[in-house]
Amino acid sequence: MSSYSPLNQDNVKQLRGMFPALQRTVNGVSPVYLDGPGGTQLPDSVIDAFGAYLRSGNSNLGGKFQVSQETVSLVDRARASAAALLGASSTDSIFFGANMTSVTFSFSRALSQEWQAGDEVIVSMADHGANRSSWIMAAQDRGVTVHYLPVVDNTSTLDLDALAALLNSRTRLVAVTAASNITGTLTDLETVIAMSHDVGAKVFVDAVHLLPHELVDVHALDVDFLAGSAYKFYGPHLGFLYGKHEWLSSIRPYKVEPAPTQAPNCWETGTLNFEALSAFVAAVEYLASLGDEGEDKTLRERLASGYDNIQQYEMTLSAYFLAQLKQLDNVQLYGVDQVEGRTATFALRFGDCDPTVVAEALGRRQIYVWSGHLYADRLTDAFGVTAKGGILRVGLMHYNTVEEIDVFFDALKDVLSTVA
Of the four listed, 95, 176, 236, 343, which is most buried by Cβ atoms within 10 Å? Predict the structure, then answer.
């Protein structure tokens, strides 16, 4: 058994010792990192993995010597780690890139080559621009019609009735988020994927916000493509994309000559960031270390146990946060107002008060949150708040504590009393 099973207030305080950034003080104050949805802090094991690769020798792939062969093994381990993380049946279904945005943009160029005028794609109003603008531009290049899937209300739940009305035999792609990066609201991926496949459309899922909080199973979902960013789950700045092998092998890559011809390597234009891949392997291992560590456990099984611990602990944080929120006057929560159906990410507004003013005031107190539209401007447009400064986003990760939530609310009450 892991020493962190289950996660609780006591062992999370012990776990925080593994994160150097959480030990820092600024002007004598310990920062409260509530900015996790924008990028998490890293444990020592992940930080050390960067240097470990470089210290052992830095070489490109394909050499007939030891260090190059070790790099080949590292790439293989990274693909195996990603396959375990996503529930993929083949490591040939995973490729890496600079970040999710770049990987998605590049892939959109290739996938859209098969589109024709009169075809249609559907993008979501709830999505980050990385999973919206890439497909919009690809559609414009090919003369393809773009439809916007709306949200139902301020919970930011996708309107599945509207999806049913939009889907037809001309639909080539449906692009949705697994969870809103603003509100934390989860998408009913099973239903979206099934509905889309019924008309022959492929589905591309942005799992960036979900992956720090819940385990993904691409095989069970039967999703065609799914993308993520390691820096959102305690890893390096590195993007990756899963695709069904039948698609990655049959779609013509949008690539330059040095890239190999076979999947998945043909999708990786240029030299990979090997030190980041080393850190990625360490990040996946860190997540697995939060679960059962029996010798008979596979990496996937350990990840499932670790994620279960993460989810259960974050639900306790969410319940406490929502309870404290209800004690505030003149506050509006965007997203579901319960623990179920969400991640521990909260979008708030305080009447006509500009969220940026609140974020700046909290920042001066070393409480770190985000404000604005956070690249999900279609969603803040739907909320009617983009021109009013968007929202204040508070994101809780498994390294956060109830005490930090108390610090946040004490400071927030004080800030609101001065800026309202």
Answer: 343
